[in-house]
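Structure in, sequence out. Go:
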C-alpha cells in the first residue's frame, strides 16, 4: 500500500507496508535511515535484529538537504533529486522484502528525531536503531550542541537506542543464546 504525504516534494514522500502476513507481531523495531551510504548497514543490522527477535520493522527516512543534489540551481536538479529518491526507495524496499515479519517504510519531510520517536510510540517499539554519529568537526559540533539525531534520541528515556557504526555488517555480531 502506498500513500503520499505532504511537503515540498510530495512525490518523494510515501508510506509502504508489507503485504498482510496474518502474523500479529507484538515486538517492534524502529530504524531511522538517511541518504548516506552507511544507512545500508544500519538497515541490514535492523533487519537482522528484527528477524532474531521475531519483530516487525518500521523504517523512517526524513528527507533533508543531504538527499538533495548540491547544485540547487542546476536545470538537472529535479531530475537528480528524483533519481536519488527512487533509487533509495527501491533499494530499501528490496531489502525489506527479505524480512519474514511485517514492515512499514515511511519517507517524509520533518524533524528526523521527532518522526523516529513518534513512530516508536505509534508501534510500541522495544528499541530504535540508527547510525552512529559521523566523525568530523561539523558532527562534533552537532554532538556538543545536542542537535544531532543521535544526541536528541539519547536524551529521551523511553526507548533504548542502538547506534550502528559505519561499516558494521550485521554478520559481525551474533545473538548469544541463553
Amino acid at each position: 500500500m502506498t500513500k503520499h504525504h505532504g511537503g515540498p516534494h510530495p512525490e518523494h514522500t510515501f508510506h509502504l507496508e508489507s503485504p498482510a502476513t496474518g502474523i500479529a507481531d507484538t515486538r517492534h523495531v524502529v530504524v531511522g535511515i538517511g541518504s548516506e551510504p552507511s544507512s545500508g548497514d544500519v538497515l541490514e543490522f535492523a533487519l537482522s535484529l528484527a528477524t532474531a527477535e521475531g519483530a516487525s520493522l518500521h523504517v523512517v527516512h526524513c528527507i533533508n538537504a543531504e538527499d538533495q543534489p548540491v547544485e540547487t540551481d542546476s536545470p538537472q536538479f529535479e531530475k537528480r533529486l528524483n533519481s536519488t529518491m527512487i533509487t533509495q526507495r527501491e533499494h530499501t524496499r528490496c531489502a525489506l522484502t527479505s524480512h519474514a515479519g511485517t514492515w512499514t517504510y515511511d519517507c517524509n519531510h520533518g524533524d528526523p528525531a521527532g518522526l523516529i520517536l513518534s513512530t516508536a510510540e505509534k508501534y510500541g517499539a522495544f528499541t530504535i536503531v540508527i547510525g552512529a554519529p559521523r566523525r568530523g568537526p561539523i558532527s562534533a559540533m552537532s554532538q556538543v550542541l545536542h542537535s544531532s539525531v543521535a544526541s536528541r534520541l539519547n536524551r529521551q528515556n523511553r526507548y533504548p537506542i542502538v547506534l550502528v557504526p559505519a561499516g558494521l555488517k550485521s554478520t559481525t555480531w551474533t545473538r548469544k543464546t541463553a
